[in-house]
Amino acid sequence: MINLYPVLKPFLMAVEPEAAHRAALGLLKSGLAPRYRHDDAALRCEVFGHVFANPLGLAAGFDKDAEVIAPMLRMGFGFVEAGTVTPLAQEGNPAPRLFRDVKNKSIINRLGFPGRGLEYFVAQVSDFRVAQGAGAAADGMLGINIGINKETASAFEDYSRCLSALAPMADYIVVNVSSPNTPGLRDLQSENMLDALLAGLMAVLNSLDIPPVARPVLLLKVAPDLTSDQRAAVAQLALRHHIGGLVVSNTTVARPEMLAPHLREEAGGLSGALLKDHACAVLGDFYRLTDGRLPLIGVGGISSAEDAWQRIRAGASLVQVYTGLIYEGPALVPDILRGLTARVRAAGMAHISEAVGADIDLAAPRAEAAA
Ligand SMILES: Cc1cc2nc3c(=O)[nH]c(=O)nc-3n(C[C@H](O)[C@H](O)[C@H](O)COP(=O)(O)O)c2cc1C
Question: CATH no. for residue 329?
Answer without folding.
Answer: 3.20.20.70
